[in-house]
């Protein structure tokens, strides 16, 4: 009897065995391009003559997604997304499809947000200062904006896979508790999947897996 | 007058062409003027665009000047390391900002925002109630400034449009510690400065609503929005790439060019417009009124050509009139005078051309007709009275008129009584006594004028019918007297020479004169009695009166072909 119990525990432990996937997103070489120009005034922006501009941080707009076979179990956890001042705290929010996202207005103005791809994604109406609005996120990509604040732009990427991460400024990322198996690593940048060969990843039953996806030059994304 | 007509036609055509030209010419000129105005509008629009860029350059430089203030960079560095922006930090930074604004010479910013490296507002000056602590990172201008770029933008704050400029703030030339944003409101003064010297109006609009303008009259909102929506091509080249539109501004018609404003304001449908009052069609009179003294100077206007043309036209016209009208008319007139004077009997038809020849022919035809009528009248008279037989008492020529002074005024000279010329010899223009119409023109052959007149016996006064007015007085034209002849049978008839049983003193007087004249002519008067004579006279008088309807008949004794003759003349009542 004791032997049987030992086997069951072993099998259970084996089935729940998972590893962390770590890695570093590598930017294309010679990436000294200025940040994308959101708007332009009467003049072209000029480089500060007294100090070189800061390198643009692309990583807040990158999502590393590990896609495996089968479907993920469990209910997605709710996610908060703060609106601070004239922008969202995170310019790109990555969530698991079906997650409940709650936007909290921490700015000093009333906003009315709308998702361009899905009109009814966010409840219509103003969000008062300090107020919040929750909504479920089907799989997909959504641009969230306020018609009166054209500079206010937020992005939500809802993926089926629960294994994803937004890299740090240096490109490093960590995705915890990835079950052993074979996976594909995809990169999302701003508004689409990067047009690159997907990386393959095999998560062992023991130890961690490492992958270093590379961003192609030009940050070209797939049109579809 | 063929060539005169041609000339008048040519002159009329030239006049019509000139009038058409005068009425038409203003239109091309107006079109050219309108095109020139449109070009001027496009140029002005581009100039305003350039001025706005220059203005942006100045503002960006000013932001850079702000950013180089050590005190500002120190405060931003300090704030960036703090977890929260507190009131004290904000207040001190605000005071610094106000001081810096006051130090600006010229175009002072309307507001300033100081932002730490984390994108938080350290202090606001003159905007949003000087609020602080909120995050403004996310706005493209702020993000770029925090990243180390200088640039400008247009912000819409509280329904006001601001030209903003930002500069990164560097600490010790090694570290970015934040950014400073300066804003200048778009005002009517700015619009006036931009429009200065361009002679156009400038307006700034957001979502079709006027923000600032040099004109107090708003433009048609819908038309403006339509023009804005129709803008195409690269922004910054709207002035060159898009045609001007005709709009209304109140009761005025204007031509406007619309150009998009860049930056964040572009998404709020912001634009500026350059507009001018549309040139109106001034037409011919307006063109005349617009003529200046210099326009009609000898340097500008071909007076010699116009004057020469006028003289040539006049000379040609007058010459043709003289050749084709005046001279032929004078020639015809002269010939008509000669005809009237009797120097010629007919007009020379071949000597006159065209209509003048026709006139001459018409006159000649009428002269011929008169001759024919006279012959016909003589024939009628012969039929009435019969031919004068040989050896008769003498022909009684009944022709003549009572209105002929000569007929009633027997002249004492040997030429006999002053009788009018026979009708057949009447000439136009005769200044003699007035002739009675047509019958006087009858040509009956030898008449009193051609007969050898003899003095009336004893110089007696002319014999007048009773009640006749003085023959010397002009009389109204009498109806055509019917010519009559009295033959000797009539005179020889033995009817009593009474009138109603009484002796007619007039007939007696005529009888006496007749007998006297016959004797003086050596004629036999045997058998000539008063009774017969008066009877015939009476018969003849009555017959003549019934024929002609005259009131009286006058008998005149005269010599014809050496024999005494008697002439009966019907006398019409006055």
Describe this structure in words.
The complex is a heterodimer of chains A (224) and B (574). With 224 residues, chain A is mainly β. Chain A contains one helix and 17 strands. In chain A, strands 3, 12, 14, 15 and 16 form a five-stranded antiparallel sheet that branches. In chain A, a hairpin with a 2-residue loop joins strand 14 (181-189) and strand 15. The longest helix of chain A is centred in the first third of the chain and has 14 residues, at 2-15. Chain B is of the alpha+beta class and 574 residues long. In chain B, helix 1 runs antiparallel to helix 10 and helix 3 (70-80) packs antiparallel against helix 4. The two termini of chain B are 48 Å apart. Classes of the chains: A mainly beta (224), B alpha+beta (574). Chains A and B meet through strand 2, strand 5 and strand 11 of A and helix 2, helix 5, strand 3 and strand 4 of B.
List keywords for this structure.
heterodimer, A: 224 residues, five-stranded antiparallel sheet, 1 helix, 17 strands, 6% helix, B: 574 residues, alpha+beta, 14 strands
Strand content of the residues of chain A, in percent? 35-45%
Structural class of chain A: mainly beta
The helicity of chain B comes to 40-55%
- Mean pLDDT rating of chain B: 79
Following the backbone from N to C, one meets helices and strands of chain B in this order, namely HHHHEEHEEEHEEHHEEEHHHHHEEHHEE
Residue windows where pLDDT falls under 50 for at least 5 positions of chain B: 388-500
What is the β-strand count of chain A? 17
Unreliable stretches of chain A, pLDDT < 50, 5 or more residues?
4-15
Main sheet makeup of chain A: 5 strands, antiparallel
Number of helices of chain A: 1
Query: Overall 3D geometry of chain A?
Result: globular
Q: What structural class is derived from the secondary structure elements of chain B?
A: alpha+beta
**Over all CA atoms, what is the radius of gyration of chain A?**
21 Å
Distinct helical segment count of chain B: 15
Could you spell the SSE succession of chain A in H and E letters?
HEEEEEEEEEEEEEEEEE
Could you tell me the radius of gyration of chain B in angstroms?
A: 60 Å
Q: Hey, roughly how much beta strand do the residues of chain B contain?
A: 15-25%
Query: What number is the mean pLDDT of chain A?
Result: 87
